[in-house]
Amino acid sequence: QVQLQESGPGLVKPSETLSLTCNVSGGSITSFYWSWIRQPPGKRLEWIGYIYYTGSTKYNPSLKSRVTISVDTSKNQFSLTLTSVTTADTAVYYCARGGAAGDHWGQGTLVTVSS
Amino acid sequence: DFVMTQSPDSLPVSLGERATITCKSSQSVLYSSHNKNYLAWYQQKPGQPPKLLIYWASTRESGVPDRFSGSGSGTDFTLTISSLQAEDVAIYYCQQYYSNPYTFGQGTKLEIK
């Protein structure tokens, strides 16, 4: 059974960079798409983007200038970097398997942007 | 962006009764050459991540009870729970994956009447 686990700082200062990693266990990261989705408090889910294990990516246009998703197949993990964060980036961040409909999700990690 | 609008926002249903949630897309999510609707349904319980229930609008994910069914095409979709169980209390979301950015509905909170 594939399991995903997000890790990274829970608090980031405004204007700084948010970095999260998703560790994949119980299966190989190859041959699948992998996504990041977030959910701001009290708001709907927002798709951030995905990466294929080969490294090809697709990003939400509203975040594209600030987002990078990368993959490390040797470590069976993929990562999210979001630059120049503001309080609007405060959210629970989820990683998931799948480029469109995610069939396995991590538990999510709350990232708060605050000084 | 495709705007996904669910109704109702909150739905009280008695145990054993049918629950119906609708999702309307601002544009068609039917890819006619594939004859597939790029729409998914998720269930989210408190403190848990969303769980995929339905994809391609009507294909049930492995392990999902058959009381859950999805229907619709184009811009109008429905998630039906044929006989509500206590463990079905959750927030349900639809999502289109036809066009970037892939967008979600605002959620429907299903509760026991």
Task: Output the keywords.
heterodimer, A: 115 residues, mainly beta, seven-stranded mixed β-sheet, four-stranded antiparallel β-sheet, 11 strands, 0% helix, 50% strand, globular, B: 113 residues, 13 strands, 51% strand
Task: Tell me about this structure.
The complex is a heterodimer of chains A (115) and B (113). Chain A has strands spanning 3-7, 11-12, 18-25, 33-39, 46-52, 57-59, 67-72, 77-82, 91-97, 104-105, 109-113. In chain A, strands 2, 4, 5, 6, 9, 10 and 11 form a seven-stranded mixed sheet that branches. In chain A, 0% of the residues lie in helices and 50% in strands. Chain A is built from no helices and eleven strands. The radius of gyration of chain A is 13 Å and the shape is globular. The model of chain A has no long low-confidence stretch (mean pLDDT 96). Chain B is mainly beta. Chain B is built from no helices and 13 strands. Chain B has strands at residues 4-7, 10-13, 19-25, 30-31, 36-37, 39-44, 51-55, 59-60, 68-73, 76-81, 90-96, 103-104, 108-112. In chain B, the strands form three sheets. In chain B, strands 2, 6, 7, 8, 11, 12 and 13 form a seven-stranded mixed sheet that branches. Chain B has a four-stranded antiparallel sheet with strand order 1-3-10-9, with no helix packed on it.
